[in-house]
From TrEMBL:
InterPro entries assigned: Homeodomain-like_sf, HTH_TetR, Tet_transcr_reg_TetR-rel_C_sf, TetR_C_31
Domain HTH tetR-type: 1-48
GO molecular function terms attached to this record: DNA binding
Lineage, top ranks: Bacteria, Pseudomonadati, Pseudomonadota, Alphaproteobacteria, Hyphomicrobiales
This protein's name: Transcriptional regulator, TetR family
DNA-binding region: 11-30
UniProt-listed Gene3D superfamilies: Tetracycline Repressor, domain 2
Species for this entry: Bradyrhizobium erythrophlei
Keyword Transcription regulation in annotation: yes
Keywords: DNA-binding, Transcription, Transcription regulation
């Protein structure tokens, strides 16, 4: 429903009907649309973290991990992976209200920690522990990913779907060839 109509356009009645529930059943599970959106973001983050950690366990080499990310089809099990516009809309919806920001910050920290864990694991597997600050690198990478997601929404013709992963590969090659 949100994918088709956006957050503002999707009524509680339409959301409940699309899920096969009555309006009363919706309200027995959520206090309103805000709570549903936060639950959807939470589920998205949990799925993303688990999927990436599973992938990292199977692909110790960072280049293999990046290639596995590139070829993985996240759209089947994750509506926010399928719809970057909805993902950005939900983030902005939650961020707009100051009282909801702590919930969004919690999800942001979880995403950032995931990327930090990936960076730490990649550095350790490459025998380069201590060469970068993993937490700061994770923050940079997350901002880069969100930036490419936004650019893709604005100009998909010049921003390929794999822009973020291509940039990571380019940065990895540049760091590997730069003298220490």
């Amino acid at each position: 429903m949100f994918e088709e109509q956006g957050i503002g356009g999707a009524s509680i009645e339409a959301i409940a009907a699309a899920a096969g529930f009555t309006r009363g059943a919706f309200y027995s599970n959520f206090t309103g649309k805000d709570e549903l959106i936060i639950a959807m973001l939470e589920d998205h983050v949990e799925q993303t973290v688990q999927r990436n950690l599973d992938l990292l366990a199977r692909h110790k080499n960072i280049a293999d991990f990046i290639e596995a990310l590139r070829t993985m089809d996240r759209s089947l099990q994750d509506p926010l992976g399928r719809s970057p516009l909805l993902h950005m809309e939900m983030i902005l919806f939650v961020a707009r209200a100051e009282k909801r920001r702590p919930e969004l910050a919690k999800r942001l920290r979880a995403r950032r920690q995931l990327i930090t864990d990936i960076v730490e694991t990649a550095l350790k597997n490459a025998g380069r522990s201590g060469s970068l600050n993993p937490a700061w690198t994770g923050a940079i990478l997350l901002a880069l990913e969100d930036g490419f997601r936004l650019h893709r929404l604005i100009d998909p013709e010049t921003t390929p779907a794999d822009s973020f992963l291509r940039a990571i590969g380019d940065l990895q090659r540049a760091v590997r060839t730069t003298p220490a």
